[in-house]
Amino acid sequence: MMKPESGGALNKIAVIGAGSWGTALAILLGRKGLNPVVWARNPRLVDEIRECGENRTYLPGHRIPDSVTFTPDFKDAVAGMESILLVVPSHGMRAVALRLAEVLKGADALPRAVIFASKGIENDTLLTMSELLEQTLPESLSGHIACLSGPSFAEEVARSMPTAVTIAASDQRLAKGLQKLFSTDYFRVYASMDMIGVQLGGALKNVMAIAAGISDGLGFGHNSRAALITRGLAEMARLGVRLGANPLSFAGLAGLGDLVLTCTGDLSRNRQVGLKLGQGLSIEDILKEMKMVAEGVKTSRSAFHMSEKYGVDMPITAQVYRVLYEGLDPRDAVRELLTRPLKQEL
Length: 346
Description:
This protein is of the alpha/beta class. Helices cover 50% and strands 10% of the residues.
């Protein structure tokens, strides 16, 4: 097997995952004149998309360019690709990565880039997505893994609304190449080399969005939401710095940008989970009603255990975890947060 080249074209791209975000990114790439191949796990979804020209299950109302191909055949989707974009829920990433690794074993050449747009931390191992991929994919792909993150609702990207995101990679040349691959006149991509910070920002903001939703669901006001966003950002940065991230990343698009969007936007699934919790619904009933994944539910568990493992104070994360997994009443969670011992802000 050949080692992937560090430079060269990245335009031949497979998108693994046909949910709302995977579909939106495939539409974006198709509009650029590329020919992405999208893998969908459900053959019936592929048939539906081929028949009506849109993903009515996950992203209805948005015409998919003819240059975008959908297939239920995983091996066919990734064969000969220069870039592979993984857009699957974080809890399903390991299974997909192992499947990809098996396919790549028999490949003549490896892809030049494996990009993931999933925002989460694996529950049992507490690994970030890049760490998980480094562990499961061929060793020669080390240094060819990148993360796409930032404030980006799929619906708005599909509508060509101005959006700015971050692409992070340990190799600057790779980051710049992928920056060009994804950038359009409405989708602006900034490059970063802070893989840890960009990933933690994208994962932890979902936990804070549940907290903000709970606050809104309880009928609290803008003061409460602003406090949660600000103190939530402080928690995110504390854990990030402990793990070696650049603290400035949390003031950027993958940190503050995504945090504000997810805590305030009505399209945020994590905020919607929090709203319903605040209104008195059980997490079991909420999840039964949802068609798409709210990453923050599982990430809150990972984040809570990471805070314990690394000795980082994360009180909002702890209360969200207790509401979701220990049955704590949301009003009691707020009361406990507000009556903690007083301290200096910085």
